[in-house]
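Example complex used in Figure S2.
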Amino acid sequence: MTQRPRFSLLGAAVAGLLVGSAAGAIAAPAPFDPSACGLPATTPVLASFDATPAKGIWNRLPALARSPELEEVTGTAHVMILGDVAPPAMVGGSGPRPASLPNAVCVVIPSGPILYYNVSRQGFVAP
Amino acid sequence: MSVLRWLRRPEASRGPAAGMPAWRRAVRSQLVMTLIAVTALASVEATFAPVVAAADAINCTSEGGVNRWSGHSISGVFHGNSGTAEGQDLHQCNNPAFIEVNGTFYWTNVEHGGTFNDIVQVGMAKCREPGVYCSSSMFYARGWGRQHTTPGCSGLSDVAPTTIPVSLAWNGASRDYKVYHLNNRWRMFVGLTEVYSVPEASICWYPGVASWFGESWDIGDAIGGSVGNHLRVTETNTTSCENCGFVYTNFNASAACNYGVVSGPYFCDLIDTRTLDIWTNR
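Predicted assembly (409 residues):
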C-alpha cells in the first residue's frame, strides 16, 4: 500500500491547479510532460528528445527492447527518459502489482502515451 | 417547560421589561444570543459544508492508488471479449485531498491471466490523479500492457497498463465494450466505434482469460453500482479466434463470481448465462 505523499504549501497549490484541471475536460498533455503517462508532473525528466518517425527512437536509445507499436508510427514520438518511478495508478489484471517501475521511459505518440519500464540506457545518445 | 416555549411566553413577546425579574431577563438574553450564534454557525457550516457522501461512496483515504477489482472471468483462448454495461455515473470517494489518486472503472478485458500487465481493456472511467489524463466526469478509456517475462514476450519491452481516455465523448447510455483481435490488430471498441488499436505483435502474451470487472483505486470509491442500483453487464460474449464469430457466455448463475473481491463491501453476482451485476454494498 502506498501512502499519499506530503507536500509543501507551494506544492499543494500547484497540485491543486493540476487536480482542478483534471476535474474538467481532459486536456492533451504537453509534449514533454510526464503526467501524460500518469506520473506526477514534477517527475524528473533526465533527458528528452523527439523522434520522427517514431522508430527513430532506437537511434538514441538503442537498448530499448522491441516495441512493435512504435515501429509502425510515421509521426513524431516525444520521448522522456525518466528514472525509477513509483507506479502510477495503473489499471490492469489482478495479478501482483509491481512495487516500482525502474528505468521508466514515457513515449507520447499521436495515438497516445505509452509508459515503458526496465529500459536499458546502455548506448544512449544524448540529444 | 422547554426553552423554546419559555421564550415564546406572552411576556417574551412583549419586550424584555414586561414584568420580568432581572435574573430571568439576563438568562433569556443569554439564551437568545446563544441561539443566534448557533444559527449563524449552522448557516456558515451549511455554506462551506464538505461534500456529502453519496449513497455508495465514502470519504477518500490516504491509500494513494490501491487497485481493487470485483467481477467475473472465464478461462480459455480468447481473441475477443464483449459486454454491454449500463451507462451509470459511477461514484468516487468524497472529500479528496489536494493530491489524490482514486477512481472507479468498468472494464471488458482479454488477459494473459495471473499477471498484472498482460491485458487489453476498454471501458468507462472516472478518476482523480495528479496528471492531466484523468477526470472526475465520466469518460471512456482504454489500456494495455505486457511484460517481457511472460511466455512469448521475451525480447520485447515492458509496457505498464495506464488508463488513457479515448476521444469518444461520454453520453451516459448503455454501451457495448469490446476487445477484438481483428485483421492483425488488437482493437478496442465502444459501441461500433473503434477507439484504439495496437499491432498484434505488441500483444505477445497468450490470451487465456476473458474478464468483466469493476475497479477502484481507493477503498472509498465504489466498484460498480450501489446496493440499490447495481451496475448490470449484459450480453457477455467472446470469440476464440481472430476475425471469427462471437458466442455468448454460459455462466453458471448459481456459482459465485471469481474475479477480485466478491465479498463486502464489493459484490458481484452472476444473474444468468450472459449477465452479471457488480455493486458496492453502501
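The radius of gyration of chain B is 27 Å. Chain B has two domains: 3-47, 68-280.
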